[in-house]
Specification:
This protein has about 425 residues and is α/β, with parallel strands linked by helices. It is built from eleven helices and 23 strands. It starts with 9 loop residues before the first strand and ends in an 18-residue tail after the last strand.
Length: about 425
Amino acid sequence: MSEPLAPGSRVALLVPGSPAYLDAVLALLERGVFPIPLDPRLTDHERERILTPLAPDLVVTDPDGLRGLGGWRGGLPQGRPMHCTSGTTGVPKGVDSGLLGPEAARALVQEERELWGFAADDVNLVLSPLYHSAPLRFAMGTRLAGGRVVLPGPFDPAVVTAAIVEHRPTTMFCVPTHLQRLFAHWDEVGVPDLSSFRLVAHAGAPCPTDLKRRLIATFPPGSTWEFYGATEGQFTACRSEEWLERPGTVGRARPGRRLRLDDDGTIWCAVPDHARFTYVGAPEQTARAWRPGPEGSAGPWEFSVGDLGRLDEDGYLYLDGRRSDLLITGGVHVYPLEVEQVLGEHPDVVDVAVYGEPDPTWGTRVCAAVVGEVDLEDLRAFARERLAPPKRPKTYRRLPELPRTLTGKVRRDLLG
């Protein structure tokens, strides 16, 4: 690096996660420089497509290059990493928090610490790549509190199990796919001692009911949580005990935030100033994502990522899906998530995803991709008992597994 990076500069990181990676992210943010964490496996074409609008001042593609970024000295981040939206369709957009002043920087760290209880005696076990926002956020929160982070490498159930035995972690973020693979491995080798865990948080994709119940039964009482959020920001958090009382909920608004729904179910979240963001180079999309919040709300502004849901009388949120996933069949609106939740209750369904295909009669045909040794005629009968006619899949496709991103989101664009 020929010249020091000035506050507001951007550094793209396309290298595998490591202790040096985490140290570099904290060191950059401490100086007000924004790291852009990206998958190092991106092709040259993908890198150019994503990075051109972000215009980074430096691109690091060799792990040795992390040493030139300096070491973290224990100061507070002056912003959030510039993650990109997951981009299952279209070009991923950079999410920019902007530089934060001292008060906002302290509030950003304190909000996470108060919710998740990060402390100096924590040991955070990282299962997902650090270029994803949630695992990096949990790792940063742990280090900022003085705790230790364990990075066992690409996810492997046997390696993770060995790390649990050796390091006695206290916290872990995971997606449902991680849990499915861990439980399958533990069915073969036995469940390790999990008593060290005080926090196991999951998000990223809907968690099947049976998997959720096994998670609660396997880990220490009171340790398991679900949260709902997006690259852009966080909405809710929910202890599993709350979920047991209200199956299907993703919880209530996080402290300091407030949820509100439009008449069509679009979810908006009022947030404090330190949680504001813009989309890099996309002022029109930024404007659509934000609007003034109601008087007395948690923040002066509220944002939406287009998700749809319902709130019960106690403020617990239930997700109905994303507007971008909406299927219109015969003029009727069908949300895949609702259908998936019903089909996923069948005892022989291991995994399921609902998607649409063009249909000359209905406009869109509702289809379901199913994993598991379920009899498809039995599943059709199961759907007839529980779903109105427009919501019942007209086509079923059996797959060995669903195509997913590394954060567990189904690639619906690969199902049709």
